[in-house]
Amino acid sequence: MASSLRTRRGRARLRAVALIGIDGSGKTTQAHRLAQALTAAGRPATYHRNAGGRRWLGRIAQRFGRPDAQRLVGRDGLLVVESVLRWLAIALALISCLVTGRTAVMDRWSACQYASIRAHGGQRWERLARAGYRIFPAPRVTFLLTVDPAEAYRRIERRGTDHETIQWLTAATAAYRGLPEYGSFVVVDGNGPPEEVARRIRAHLSEWLPDDPAAGPGPAPAGPRRPAGGAGRDGPVPVQARP
Q1: Strand 186-189 and strand 45-49: pairing?
Q2: Distance CA 213, CA 235 (A)
């Protein structure tokens, strides 16, 4: 697995890696771990949390006596705000890494917005979103962390900072699987312990982590591999906030 990845990609620079998946899948934890691992291996990396603003809007909604952001601005309004804020976050992240030369470890990517649009039943907005996000170069690898919606729900409730319904998490899971890009994602089972998930992710990046014992051979992630496509400070730098 890892050797074939190296053969296809040669010694290409790792400009960006994206981690996507439903809320509670472990994206943020794994993005932080990966940025730290790359930096420790001498490939300075920056963590970028490409927020869509849903949590921020939810807090505003509660101040106005509304239960959530959608009840405040409507479904279409929420999708527009999410799309714009995430676009800006990704643009800033890419510009930052272009200037600094660091690897961008993306906590969420454009696919997250497409999945959100589909899960909300706003498919007519997807074409517009795709037109706007098309200018961004594809990450070298996009990891889709999969997790059972019930497990994701338990994790969200345990952290206690926000709330999602099982229905929403199930719809979002189906939305990711239905994306036309799904076949290009590296699908990683996110149900296990964080250390095991991190090892699986790093095993796929062994070209850039050659001396990392955690990136050695091991069970392959549960899904297809994406084809090839498409730093200054000593540690990863968080720059965004969660939706």
Answers
A1: unpaired
A2: 20
Q: Which residue(s) pair with 45 in the sheet?
A: 103
Interatomic CA distance for residues 115 and 18, integer angstroms = 15
Question: What is the pLDDT, as a whole number, of residue 164?
Answer: 86
pTM (predicted TM-score):
0.78
Helix (H, G, I), strand (E, B) or coil at 66: coil
To 5 degrees, how large is the angle CA 129–CA 162–CA 242?
A: 45
Q: Which residues pair with 186 in a beta bridge?
A: 143
Q: For Cα atoms 223, 35, 157, give the angle at the middle one, nearest 5 degrees.
A: 70
Question: What residue ranges of the chain have pLDDT lower than 50?
Answer: 1-10, 218-243
Q: How far is CA 185 from CA 80, 96, 160, 208, in A?
A: 25, 24, 30, 18
The structure tokens listed for 231 are 């730093």
Determine the Cα–Cα distance for residues 185 and 227; give it in Å rounded to an integer.
Answer: 9
Reference 24, options 165, 130, 230, 126; nearest CA is 165
Q: Residue 143 forms beta bridges with which residues? A: 19, 186
193 residue type, one letter: P
Our CA dihedral for 47, 185, 112, 12, rounded to 10 degrees, sits at 40
Q: Are 20 and 143 in contact (CB under 8 A)?
A: yes
The amino acid at residue 180 is P
Q: What is the pLDDT of residue 54?
A: 62
Give residues with Cβ within 8 angstroms of 225, minimum separation 6. 1, 5, 186, 204
Q: Which two tokens stand for residue 85?
A: 């804020």
